[in-house]
Structures are given as C-alpha cells and as structure tokens.
Amino acid sequence: MQNKKYMAIPILLIVTLGLIGFAYASWYDYLYVNGQIDTAYLKMEFMSVSSDDPPGTIDVNKDKDVGTTTASKIDDTHVQVTITNGYPCYEVYVHFTIENDGTIPVHFRGFGPQPPFVFDGRKTWKASLFDGEITVWGWDSNMEQLHPGDRGGYTIWIHIEQPAKQHYTYTFTVEVIYSQWNAND
Amino acid sequence: MGMDTKKIAATFAILVIALGIAGYAYASWYSYLYVEGEVDTGYIGVEWTVGAGYDSETEGKNYSSITGYIEGDTLYVTVHNGYPCIDYWLPVDILNIGSIPIHIWNITSDLSALPEGTVVELIADPSYPIYPLEVGAQIHPGFEVYGLIHVHLPQITGQDSTYYFSVTVTYGQWNLPPTE
Questions:
Q1: Both B18 and B97 in a single domain?
Q2: Using the beta-carbon criterion (under 8 Å), do A42 and B149 form an inter-chain contact?
Q3: B41 part of a folded domain
Q4: Largest Cα–Cα distance of chain A, in whole Å?
Q5: φ and ψ of B11, to 5 deg
Q6: What is the span of the domain harbouring residue B6?
Q7: Global pTM exceeds 0.90
Q8: Which residues of A touch B43 (CB under 8 A)?
Q9: Which residues of B touch A31 (CB under 8 A)?
Q10: Are residues B16 and B68 in the same domain?
C-alpha cells in the first residue's frame, strides 16, 4: 500500500508539470482599453429681472400708483419679487431673462413647484396659492430649448384675489424648471 | 610440436584475422548525409486601430463626443462632456500584425467605478458582419476584425464628473484553447 502512494506522487507531479508546461507554452497576450468619461453639467442663471410696476409708476391696468412691485436678483439662481401695499385685483407682470451657462442644451419645462401649478393646455401654468388668495400665472416658451450661451425671456403674472387678507404678508417661491434637452417629459 | 608452439600459432592466427577484419572495415567506402535543422518560430501580435467616434446627438447639437487614441497596446477612450441618454460609439479594429493566426480568447471589463446602469461594451461592428470583433474571432496575419466601443450613461450619472473604466482583450495562438 505504501509503495502505491509513492508511485502516485511522481505520476501526479508529471501531470501537474505537464499542465503548467502547457499553460506556459501557450502564446497569448493582451490589448487594453482605458476609458474616461467626463460628464456635462446644467447651469442656468438669472441675468435680469424687472416688474411692470416699479416704484413711481401707475399700477398695471389702473389709473393710480397705489401698489408697488420690486424685482431684483439675489444670486444666479434666485430673484426676489416684493409687492408692497397690494390690494385685491392688483396685478403685475414680472419679466426675467435666463441664460444657459451649462455645457449642453436645456429645455425650459415651465414653472413649479407642481402642484399647485397646472398646465392648462395653452402653454401656461396657473397656480392658485393660499386658498385662492393669490394667483400666479406663468407662460411662454413651454419646452423652449436653450443651447449653451443662449438666453430666454419669461414672464409670470401675479394677481391678488378678493379673499386676500388685509395687512398681511404672503411669501411664496416660484421655481423655473429646466432639464437636459433629451430627457423624457 | 609442443603445446607452447600451438598457442603461439593460434595467437598469431587470431591476430591476422582480427587485423584483416579491421583492414576490411577501413577499406570500405562509406559516407554521410546530414540534416541541418533550423526552426524559425512564428509570433503573435495585434494592434488597435481607432476610427472617428460618433453619437446619437441630433443635428445641431454637437455638444459631446467620444474620441480615442493609441499608445502601444493600449487604447485610450474619452467621452467628452457626456450626458445621459446619448449613445456614444467609437469604431475600433484589431489588426493581426503577427505571423500566425490568433483567436480572441476573452474580453473582460472593469466597470465598477461607473454609475449603476452605465453601458460600456466592446461589441462587433454590425457594418462588418464577416469580421466581427468578438470572443472566438479568428484573425489571420494582415487581417482585422471590426468592433465598436459603445457607451451609454444612465440618468443617475453625476454632472461635471469624471468616471473611469477599463476593458482587456486577451488573444492567443489560434490552435490552442484559451489557457489564460
């Protein structure tokens, strides 16, 4: 029995060496691919903002200078719109210009957050805020495409409704939504 | 005749016979034929060829691209300003510059540093169905197989980021199964 074991060892050794020898004997080599992906980015900036009723002007569609709306740029992505001494049926248009400072085209998707903004089928968005006390409309340029470096002009309309409270401050945010041009709706 | 005389005579006779045999041998006509052996071995070798990349951006929207260049046995591929939902293709060929046929044994990828769902693949170029770059393809000396590097980024890809990947193609002599 012991002799059989001793006999098996050299046989195994031969087989193993044979296999190793076969592997080393094969001719083979490699080709390589080293890949790098540098991705793009989206960057939209407010370039300017203005209102149709700055201080010292007659209220929109009225004959008196009662209310006032100021609009100013806070930073590249925020503008501040302030209505002072507003009253029911006071309305104002706020215009702003946005530039695509990113590296790929974008689509303007509208205004948000949604809800409460509702697409009414006429390329406009309507928001009824604070239980109907303030209405904001946004329109123009649904799905407008801005290539890098392009600018687009947009407008929102703010209207104070009859149920609005007296001597009260309403605060809200309107988002301007955009996305990569080739994203799904 | 004494016993000693007989021994001397026998010795002499054996000597004569032996010398005779030897003399016969030396006198025979003979010569040689020679085989001078030389084995010049073949060698395996392939190289990349890279073409002009293209993508699925529509006309008027050439904002991203894919390019490649070669250094030695490495093909360096870069997607520039890439973004989701665009397909990038880079034509790549493998040319047999060796002296024996080879087989492509294996194609492996390391995509671990890419966002989940990213597609990076080295596939056969459908424009050249007779010579596809694929595992098992045989390439004779002077011939090539045609492939494409295809990249597609998922929506979760980060903006303004850099990702890396690698692909390794193993090839070997045509008449052996893959041993690596």
A1: no
A2: no
A3: no
A4: 120
A5: -60, -45
A6: 1-31
A7: no
A8: 27
A9: 46-48, 73-75, 94, 168-169, 171
A10: no
List B92's β-bridge partners, or say none. B50, B147
Whether A36 sits inside 8 A of B77 (CB atoms) is yes
Same domain membership, residue B7 and residue B75: no
ipTM: 0.79
Task: Indicate the burial class of A31 (C-beta count within 10 angstroms; 0-12, 13-18, 19 or more).
Answer: buried
Kindly state whether residues B52 and B23 are assigned to the same domain: no
Parallel/antiparallel/unpaired status of strands A44-51 and A91-100 = antiparallel
B120 and A38 in contact by Cβ < 8 A?
Answer: no
Tokens of B72: 């030695």
Where does residue B53 rank: exposed (0-12), middle (13-18), buried (19+ CB within 10 A)?
buried
Q: Note the pLDDT tens digit of each residue in B115-136.
A: 999 999 999 999 999 999 999 9
- Chain A CB contacts of B94 under 8 Å are 31
User: Does residue B180 lie in a domain region?
Assistant: no
Q: Which chain A residues are Cβ-neighbours of B179 within 8 angstroms?
A: 22-23, 26, 28
User: Do residues B65 and B53 lie in contact, with contact meaning Cβ atoms separated by under 8 Å?
Assistant: yes
CA A158 – CA A137 distance, rounded (Å): 7
Query: What total of structural domains would you count in chain B?
Result: 2
In this structure, the answer to whether residues B19 and B69 fall within a common structural domain is: no
